[in-house]
Amino acid sequence: MSRDRFMAIRWSLHLCDPETDEQNQTKKGTDQYDPLVKIKPLYDELLSSCKRFYQPHRHIAIDERMVAVKAPIGLKQHMKRKLTNWRYKLFVLADSLSGYTWNFFVCLGKRGQVSKKALSYECVMSLLDLPRLGTGYRLCDNFHTSGFPDTAGNDMPKRAERGTIQWKRKDGLLFLKCTDSREVTNCSTCHRAGNAVKRRMTDSRGVCMSESDPVPEAVQKHMGGVDLPDSFIAHYYGLHRTNKWYKALFQHFLDIAIVNAFTLHKDVQKAKKDMTQKAFRDELVQQLAELAKPEAPSQSLPQQQGCLPEFFGQDKTQGRRKCVHCRAKTPVYCTSCRVALCFVVGRNCFKEWHQK
Predict the structure, then answer these.
(1) 302 CB contacts (<8 Å, ≥6 apart)?
(2) Across-strand partners of 187?
(3) CA–CA distance from 299 to each of 83, 119, 252, 294 (Å)?
(4) How far apart, in whole angstroms, are the C-alpha atoms of residue 97 and residue 322?
(5) pTM for this structure?
(6) In sequence order, which residues have a C-beta less than 8 Å from that of residue 135 and are 6 or more positions away?
(7) 353, 324 in Cβ contact below 8 A?
(8) Residue 65 CB neighbour total at 10 angstroms
(9) CA 301 and chain centroid, separation
(10) What is the per-residue pLDDT across 246-277, written as a single tens digit (0 to 9) for each?
(11) 3-state DSSP call for residue 67?
(12) Strands 329-330 and 208-213, how do they pair?
């Protein structure tokens, strides 16, 4: 495919019915206006497929994901500390073990909030289905499960040594605060304050040593569930520069689908040799190209529609003319080509002329 052909297809890309988009534009400024109507069909189908083909493991994680874009639309959010300041924000629920993206939604800012509660509450209640709450899933994250009660006294000093820990418990809910390279807070309903994890580090002399980290092992192990699919997407980023916001999200949705398919492939092929993500993407492109190829034509000789022999007159002695193939006289002609052709035993010019 040429570059111009590819750009023409990309320029013509639309994900919803134009009439539906026009009707939605008339509702702008009202509560019935849907800012995501341009991606709604693909958005809903992708969410349904992500949930249908995978059952998350016990530990799950919720975190934000940023999609860089320069399209002029109010859905963008400004991030001071990011390399690309203006981005779309998505909140993602992923399996902490495999990194499978099980659910997500595009953040709409204040217009997308249903209740007046905090953003962390809105994310968890929107991403995790209510029937799954209380069924044994454990949410491990450094934002939605963080926090520590404000205490006026008996608090940690501002410059506490690394490894300093403080904890409080109330009705089965553990609040934990510890000092690492910075202050870390966490709250949990399924861990004890005495749990710790061993990690390797280098001291000021460059000697490797083992140190006890007061953060619970399960929290430290399963906290970066969303970071795993983010790294898969970053290795083979499919986002092309565009000024259309819905095309940027369409390209990111393709990345989500490909990484989820790669995760499912690894789970199915556990007993066999692992396939790298690059090899998986190459195989996927080849299979999609095979599906797009047109069917091979039949090897049999196609029948000439309308080419039938006919006599010029009432019998073979009337209206004889010269054959266009052998120049002999013949009373037969082709009804479609309107040329005289021999059609007798031993001289079948009708067949030979049509096969040329």
Answers:
(1) none
(2) 175
(3) 58, 65, 43, 15
(4) 84
(5) 0.69
(6) none
(7) yes
(8) 21
(9) 45
(10) 888 888 899 999 999 999 998 887 756 678 88
(11) strand
(12) unpaired
